[in-house]
Amino acid sequence: MNIRGVIFDFGFTLFEFKNASVENYLNSYRQGLSKSVDKLKNIKIIEDNEIEKLFIRQFTKQRNTNFKNSIKTNSEIPTHNLFRSVLETLGLQKLNNYQYQELADLYHSHEERQWVPLKNTKKTLEGLKKKHLKLAVLSNHPNHNSIENILKKYNVLSFFDTIVTSAKFGTRKPDPEIFLHTLDNMGVKDPRACFMIGDEYGDIIGGHRAGLKTILYKRRIKFPFEREISLTDYIQINDISEILNHII
Fold first, then answer.
1. What pLDDT shows up at residue 50?
2. pTM for the model
């Protein structure tokens, strides 16, 4: 069957995190949270050091709980709802939807600066568009705006027919429903006519469960606690541009 579309994972498939390490990840979130707290101070939600410490402690606790639950259940709590929940738990003033989203964008702003495209990302996207394929990004990320911001920054957003994130859909890969939702947004009716390309378990197992053809991008770095992929009927590539060899 001829391929009509390609769905890309975002992190470590199209883009990589500069100097990737657990410490660098955590540092980017610490700096982002500092910006969000400054905003809450500016609008008089946080008015003293004790409230600030309490807020940071509650935010960190709830963020960690949400992350563990997302692994167990494939559910996603968007960052703007995390801020809403923390403020409500502490009995602090409620904000409007725009303000919650602004806090989320500030929280992820330092992280956004750490993502850079892989060497052959743009060339690969150009090659696929020349073949008149539908393209999508499907990312497990709690802030949809961040993915779009990064794609815009590097002038590749226009290549994609749809951007789908767990933040907007509500569930994470490997839930097959988020893959089927992406196919629907692309206008590709038959999953067998679409590739899912990603670097980890959720991409390959989820894509397989949804009926897509799957490609594992073998990233250069290893992460702790990676889940083993128990399938054998998927393609492996070492460079993103190799996908062009599998499109007929």
1. 97
2. 0.96
